[in-house]
Amino acid sequence: MYRTIVSLLGILMSTASFAAHHEEPEPMVAEVYDCSLNDGVSAGDVVALGSGDFAGFVGKHNLNMTTFLWEAVAVGPPHNEPDVRWVNYFPTWGDYFAADAAWREHGKKIDVKINKLMTCGRPTMSGFHQAGEDAPDAPVKPLYIRVCKLKPDNTIANALAYRKAVNSTQNEQIGSTVGSYMFTPGFGNSGFDYGAMVTGTPDDMAKLMDHSRDGSTSELLTAAGYTEPGSCTVDLHRSHMMVSQ
What does pTM read for this prediction? Predict the structure, then answer.
């Protein structure tokens, strides 16, 4: 319970003091909708609308946000029911509420189009932390998420440090750059302490996942004295960029 309270405070209140001491960027706000595709609809149909009408709406109203569609590839329980996840990122809560107001006032026509393609539940809100390098731009990228519960005597700070070490090791191995991020639970989330996300171009992710498959990444991390601070399950998605502001 204590770890959960600390995580929520880090997301839902100001993190300026943490950033000042550690020179870390403040977490963004992530809004995630779990959605089921309607009969005869593909993920590509949703991406076409998201990168077309929806992206036009975002530009017209000068909204400060980025949007992706995550298409489920290999996802285990209890997160395996959605076909896709519509994910909006906002730099601040002010940006989120500005987008929410614009959508409620002007978004009805696009909302009708979205509802013809898929059925979505209420969103969950998370903190979105950079945990290493930024992901390179690409229209479609493999993306995996380690959904984790902290082991005893570990904190979110331990997890963030570990994920940065993993990202540095992975990028050195592949001789390129994949991005590393962490989600921490906020409104509507429960059951996990953090989610560690890794994404990059298909070629780079293939190299990275082969190094994971053969155990070489784990060997390097163990030799450097790093241990996983959480007990995790791993899910694979295909990430489609729809809006980039």
Answer: 0.88
